[in-house]
Structures are given as structure tokens and as C-alpha cells.
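Subject: sequence -> C-alpha cells, single chain

Hey, anyone have a minute? Need the predicted structure for the following. Not urgent.
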Amino acid sequence: MAAKVLGPKDPNTAYERMIQHLAIIASVPKRQLSPRFYKVVASLFERRGGSWSDLFEGSSDQLSNLKAVVRYVVEKGEERAKRSRS
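Reply:
Had a minute. Here:
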């Protein structure tokens, strides 16, 4: 049986699936989520002191932090969010 090939619309890591879920809640269509979107959100989350391990262990503070970052990137756009938080 062949392995499933994952494309950019099928995130293959847990953090990408979490970001995708939050972005869809923020009314972003799946087709608009580029690989760059995931990188920008992950980078900003980590710069704001985010911890992936704490998030996946159930930290509500980390979840709130990630939600805020996703909302910010959705509102500002990928390029603008990357520049303003650098």
C-alpha cells in the first residue's frame, strides 16, 4: 500500500493542523492557507514566547497566545504581519 502524499492543503504536522483549525474558525477558507501562512504563524507564536510542547500538553495560556497570533496574521495578512512583528 502506497503512502499518502500530503499537499499544502493537507498539513502533515500537529502544529500545522492546529493552525489550520484555528484559521478556519477565524473564517479563512482552506484553499487560502499557504505553506508561508503556517511558517509566519509558527514564527510569530514562538517569538511571543509560545511553547508547542506546553500547548499540546493542554496549556490554555498557550492556546490563547496561538489564537491571538492566528487572528493577527489573518487580519494583517502574511507579509504585513511578518514585517510588523520583526
